[in-house]
């Protein structure tokens, strides 16, 4: 697999870089961003945090708005931010260009329904193809953590629950915790997976958690004034399911914070320190 | 003067807010953003850093991308980010919609040429109207600092040199140091001020510095791999003029850094600490 470097910015004595590559899983050309901390300049292999963004985002939102590079540079953590869906001229999009389905809204599943199944395999891309690419081309170790926001928080939790051997920790801001039972998730799962709701459970953290083969340290932060909290995010469903099966979750509700990157920026350092601690003890 | 609050985001236990107001200086409705650190919740009056953005920016770029709120919250500094030009349906723009003249490119001058003189009075807005508005409506002291990037770095340096009694310190990232002698500046000054170059000197830091009535602590950071360094920014002209008249400038050239917000984010903490130190000793 070849990578094409399309931008480089020095940042906190490390580098923010964007790359394009041809994705087998997604059957199209994809872009991702990577932050390489200064420790990698000498060839030191560093652990990687994969960041999954929310609806409408690309690889750029987190890198530009979260303010994560300062502490990642200090702690020696690489960060990889993929796009949120397949892209390109041949990739199907929602007929009305909705923000919550199609482009920018891959929901981190492997679609089974036409026309989405031709490209929308974000699950395979995030779990297998992208880490293999990163570990082949950059000075990183095989220590991985995964985190995300909103739709990406759903992706991070769901992927860690299904692949606990691949991640030393998982964290989420404002995740969609029970997609089978909220409007965003029902729309996406119906479209990508079809109407047989039995096929949805494999992508729903609330339904997956009792089946986890191994515990991954899990942290979730939620804004108390998040406009989507009651209708879309439903952390109580996940917390109840976790409590019922004894799966430990560090959950914090922050009064006054909303769904924006101003919330993420306020607590990203705590998430980075959480992942750093588990990299060390992994 | 009335302010209309149009957004609020809790951020690092303080608040990022956007406001609209009717500007007399600019003869149109304007938007600005303010970060209020947590100290203001109890009514404590905090000093204010005014941030002037560069070409194409609005009040949003710095607030979303610089990562300044974390340390500003700790140090107890409010930050005000105005827009970079007058805006609105009746405001003249460059005929070809150029990025470096007209909307988004006010250059912090008072235009004298038609049609620009109807609205383009960013100098008066930044020096007088906006601080009066801020100090009347928010829990801030009359301690002010000013900073900016590129066109906004030019604005910050030029305004501090002309109004040393109003600012306890000034800093700039990648400023346009000698606008009378670079393509961006010549285009802007010709358009807004006319072709009599004698009228340009009042807005050119390199030409102003020897006439400063009082020294303001000044810090400038410049990326060594900035694509605009040789053609547009010319820090050497300003440093030479400063040396000739004995005006102290803390100048740092950072190898490998470019003109982007990744550079600003990497050194914004140092600028905030610089301003905080001078607020205390003011």
Automatic annotation (TrEMBL), chains A, B:
GO molecular function, one term: S-formylglutathione hydrolase activity
Stated family: Belongs to the esterase D family.
Reaction catalyzed: S-formylglutathione + H2O = formate + glutathione + H(+)
E.C. designation(s): 3.1.2.12
Entry keyword annotation includes Hydrolase: yes
Function: Serine hydrolase involved in the detoxification of formaldehyde.
Gene: fghA
InterPro entries, per the entry: AB_hydrolase_fold, Esterase-like, S-formylglutathione_hydrol
Organism annotation: Pseudoalteromonas fenneropenaei
Name the record gives this protein: S-formylglutathione hydrolase
Keywords: Hydrolase, Serine esterase
Hydrolase keyword on record: yes
